[in-house]
């Protein structure tokens, strides 16, 4: 009897997975992304293995990275003397330590295939952190992420055919964002600073992160978090700072470095002289600062709302948990009583007359409550339990944190002096989020995603693709600003 009941409960529970509404939700409902996430990561594992096994590896920077690390491992601590075939070492100390580990694991960089498989692991871990953000924010439908993630040629190429350091820096960045969403401030700051230590582009998030600290923690604890970030940089760079401090600072954090026009994706339409001119660089810096000044007040309002609602969560969640525990206890007691009653009924044999009476009485009840009865029969035991389960989905608060972080990084991309092909990883996974934070139609959103992907896949870049990339970026930036400001204006009207 017990086994039959368990089978019946299992049948009712599994039945809902094959309903049209559930299957449709796997495609369009952001709340069902956790299920889809498993299949995305599994598909990516298969795709990446196939790429490694079937597509020839292309050497760009891997050998140079190994040469730079070899110099360090041989005892050279003067950053100006650490060089590879592509030029001097231009990344902070975290890069040196990470790629020194790769140096040992891959037989001094000779076992490239093993390095590619290591980067598959790095990419899948990064993807887990990315999808966790999308799961928590419940902003983007699953089918959008399936299409964008699985079909990007350039992203797969950057991670497993080129072995750049950008994916490692971005992995640490996404790990930090996840930590901040979970209110793990110290862990978030550690991951963030480690990301900066691998590549300096992670500093693009710094303006938003500073105000996020300030709004949530206050000045005193903000200083503590900034000290943690600074201390990590100091500890990692200490051997080089002791040896040749000026060489290390100039080599790893050189803001005046001139990029090579050969590799530019976003400024092919400029001549080399203009591209390399200091006036052009200062103009872009001015635009960057101006855009931050325009967007930051909106971002701060989002952060303040996040802070207030987090406080409400802290007050309300314990009460919700207590009420749910109470309900579960009541349900368990009711179930135990029902089980004991059923056992007694089984022990007592009913006469034929009693059985006939009970059957006719049951039929009478079914007829008089036909509509209610039908709904009750369809409802699984799990759903019945959920009716009495109290919950408020506080995870969606993460939207108030993630959008400002993504938009501030995106401003940095828009105003970058030059974008090289590996830089696509800096913002690729945030593009669906940004586009679904606009009022664009579905067709327009996918068109922009496709055009951006096309620009990044065109090698070498052309004047047309560079101009098209800027046009897409500006449209996204303006659309996000428009929606942000409209929403905040509406909120302020409701509060007055």
Automatic annotation (TrEMBL):
The keyword Endoplasmic reticulum applies. It is found in: Endoplasmic reticulum membrane. GO terms for cellular component: endoplasmic reticulum membrane. The chain crosses the membrane at residues 33-52, 89-105, 117-135, 185-215, 222-242, 280-300, 400-421, 433-452. GO terms for molecular function: dol-P-Man:Man(5)GlcNAc(2)-PP-Dol alpha-1,3-mannosyltransferase activity. Its main location: endoplasmic reticulum. Pathway: Protein modification; protein glycosylation. It is a multi-pass membrane protein. Keywords: Endoplasmic reticulum, Glycosyltransferase, Membrane, Transferase, Transmembrane, Transmembrane helix. Its EC number is 2.4.1.258. It catalyses: an alpha-D-Man-(1->2)-alpha-D-Man-(1->2)-alpha-D-Man-(1->3)-[alpha-D-Man-(1->6)]-beta-D-Man-(1->4)-beta-D-GlcNAc-(1->4)-alpha-D-GlcNAc-diphospho-di-trans,poly-cis-dolichol + a di-trans,poly-cis-dolichyl beta-D-mannosyl phosphate = an alpha-D-Man-(1->2)-alpha-D-Man-(1->2)-alpha-D-Man-(1->3)-[alpha-D-Man-(1->3)-alpha-D-Man-(1->6)]-beta-D-Man-(1->4)-beta-D-GlcNAc-(1->4)-alpha-D-GlcNAc-diphospho-di-trans,poly-cis-dolichol + a di-trans,poly-cis-dolichyl phosphate + H(+). This is dolichyl-P-Man:Man5GlcNAc2-PP-dolichol alpha-1,3-mannosyltransferase.
